[in-house]
Sequence to fold (119 residues):
Amino acid sequence: VQLVESGGGLVQPGGSLRLSCTASGQYSVTWFRLAPGKDREFVAWINRDGGSTSYRDSVKGRFTLSRDSAKNRVSLQMNSLKPEDTAVYYCATAEHTLLSPNPKDFPYWGQGTQVTVSS
Fold:
């Protein structure tokens, strides 16, 4: 299982970014983020067919997951970004459908992409 992320960058508060995670197959995908001085935390999850999603409370209404099954690609649209969203964002998966906030449950990870929200 391979995961490749793209997107990320520097954006001002209130701005938007779109992250993508392309997998080597069709899997449920979870996004985590790691900010300096903090533990890796769950951000959002989408199941294999895109019919179910889950978000951490602090991003609900601002972040939206979608998937393009033909390309095995999951996108995380991030709007109304805040400085506290600054982190390295990772997508992760397992061979079975898994919804878990614990990063230790995931054996496969992307390389990570930096998101910086700053004026």
